């Protein structure tokens, strides 16, 4: 069985029959519109975020399946804040997330983020917040990470 893989980045819910998928899938003789519809259905929740997508095509039967990857943690943080870029300097703060928003991002990453517990995953998201100039509940993310470690804050 011949299977080919076409990969690309698309904005959630906004794939088209143009690049990157249309021209790459054309030679396989598959229903490109059907594939694009499937991509848009599976990525609709990620509107405004670039997300990795893989299309697997059986070159004999023309059957396909679409796998949607996980957006980056920084992309999820920026979407949650409604900003386009992170901080330009270490002193700059671009926004503040609540602990609930941080948990939401950690859960959205699912298995794509390391850690056995929600607390571990939240600490990773907070680490990204720190490098982007984002505070959590009005505090520096490093202070929140320390409080989680000391069990002063529970995130489970």
Largest sheet, in brief, is:
3 strands, antiparallel
Give the total of domains. 2
Order of helices and strands: EHHEEHEHHEH
Say what the CATH topology of the largest domain is.
Answer: Arc Repressor Mutant, subunit A
Broad structural category: alpha+beta
What is the residue-mean pLDDT, rounded to a whole number? 91
Q: Count of DSSP E strands?
A: 5
In one word, what is the shape?
elongated
Terminal Cα span: 46 Å
Number of helices: 6
Q: Write out the strand line-up for the largest beta sheet, numbering strands in chain order.
A: 1-2-3
**Which radius of gyration do the C-alpha atoms yield?**
19 Å
CATH superfamily of the largest domain: Ribosomal protein L11/L12, C-terminal domain
CATH architecture of the largest domain: Orthogonal Bundle
Strand content: 15-25%
Binned, the helix content reads: 25-40%
Question: Mind telling me the CATH class of the largest domain?
Answer: Mainly Alpha
Uncertain ranges: none
Structure commentary:
α3 runs antiparallel to α4 and α4 packs across α5. The chain folds into 2 domains: 66 residues, Ribosomal protein L11, N-terminal domain (2-Layer Sandwich), CATH 3.30.1550.10; 77 residues, Orthogonal Bundle (Arc Repressor Mutant, subunit A), CATH 1.10.10. The termini are far apart. Helices cover 39% and strands 19% of the residues. The mean pLDDT is 91. The protein has a 3-stranded antiparallel β-sheet. The longest helix has 15 residues. With 156 residues, the chain is α+β, with helices and mostly antiparallel strands. The chain is built from 6 helices and 5 strands. A hairpin with a 5-residue loop joins β2 and β3.
